[in-house]
C-alpha cells in the first residue's frame, strides 16, 4: 500500500518505504476488539479501516502468536469476499493493520435493526459467505469464528468475511485449538476434538438460522450452558413459511456429528445443495446481481462507537522493549502470490475429513 498510492512508487522505493500512523487521518472509532479498536481513517482520497492493537494487552493475554498468525494469513490471502489487508505497521506501543473499509457495517448491526431477514435476503448472504469459505477451505484455512459480527457489508449490499484472529491453517492434530464464540462453535471444537472445515459450516448453519428466525439455535448464558444444550438436543429449523430446501439446508448444517454434517466433504458439497441449485455463482462473484437487502446511507455502525472521537495518544502503555513483534510491518505488493504450493493430497485429506 505504501503511502496509499503504491502504484506511483518504484519497487526499490516501495521496499525502502515504511508506513507510518501520520499518513492516516483518524476519523472515528467504528468498532472495538479484545486488544484495541478499529478506526475509520482516510489516506489521501481513500478510506480504510485501521485495526489498532495495544502491545501490552496482547502480551498480557499471551496472544503474541495469535496476532502474528493473523498478520501472516492476511498477507497470503486475497479474495473479493474477504476484508483484505493493505498494509501493517507498528509503533513502540501499538500494532496497526490497514484493511479494506466496508461502509455498510456488520451483519449484527443490521440484524438488530431488522430483527430477521427474508429467505431471499438470507440466501444472498449465504452465497457471499460460501464464495469466501470456498477460497479459504481450498487453501486449507479454517476461519473458526463465523458470526454476524465478523461479516461486513460493502456499499452494494455484498457481505465480506473479516477477522482472521483465530483462523488457522488446518493440521491433523488440532484438538487443543478450541477458540471460538459460544453459540456458533461446532460441537467437535467445543468438545476439544480434532476438527476440519465442517466447523465453519456448523457456524454458517447457526447464522442462517438466526437470520431467518431472529434468534440463535442454541442460547445460554455461558459456554457451559451452550455446550450442555448442544450435547443434549439436536435443534431443527421448522418450516414456518420457509421453503423445504432452506429448512433442509440449515438442519443439515446444524448436524452435531461432523461426519454427517453438510460441508464435511468440502465447500462444493454445500454449494451444490438444492437450495442453491439456481445460483449463478459467476455473476455473484463479479457483483452483477443486485443485492436484495439495501444498505441505506453511510457508516452503518453502532453509535456508541461512532460518537467516540478519540485519539491514539490517550493510551499510556509500556513500550515493547524486546521487539516481540518483529516482522509485523507489511507493505502491499500487488504482484505477491497468494496462498501457494498446497499439496494436492493434503487438500484432498482436508476436504474429506470425517471427524467426531
Protein architecture, described:
With 356 residues, the chain is α+β, with helices and mostly antiparallel strands. It folds into 2 domains: 18-102 and 300-330, Phosphorylase Kinase, domain 1 (2-Layer Sandwich); 107-285, Orthogonal Bundle (Transferase(Phosphotransferase), domain 1). The protein is 32% helix and 14% strand. It has 13 helices and 10 strands. The chain has helices at residues 11-16, 55-60, 64-76, 107-114, 119-138, 187-190, 198-213, 223-232, 244-253, 267-271, 281-285, 303-306, 344-351, and strands at residues 25-32, 36-43, 46-54, 85-90, 94-100, 141-142, 151-153, 159-161, 168-169, 330-331. The strands form 3 sheets. A 6-stranded antiparallel beta sheet has the order 1-2-3-5-4-10. A two-stranded antiparallel sheet has the order 6-9. The protein has a two-stranded antiparallel ribbon with strand order 7-8. It is globular and about 55 Å long. The chain starts with 10 loop residues before the first helix and ends in a 5-residue tail after the last helix. The model is unreliable at 1-17 and 334-356 (pLDDT under 50).
| Count of helical regions | 13
Give the ordered list of helices and strands: HEEEHHEEHHEEEEHHHHHHHEH
Instruction: Provide the CATH superfamily of the largest domain.
Output: Transferase(Phosphotransferase) domain 1
CATH level 3 topology of the largest domain: Transferase(Phosphotransferase), domain 1
Q: What is the chains' assembly state? A: single chain
Main sheet record: 6 strands, antiparallel
According to DSSP, the number of beta strands is 10
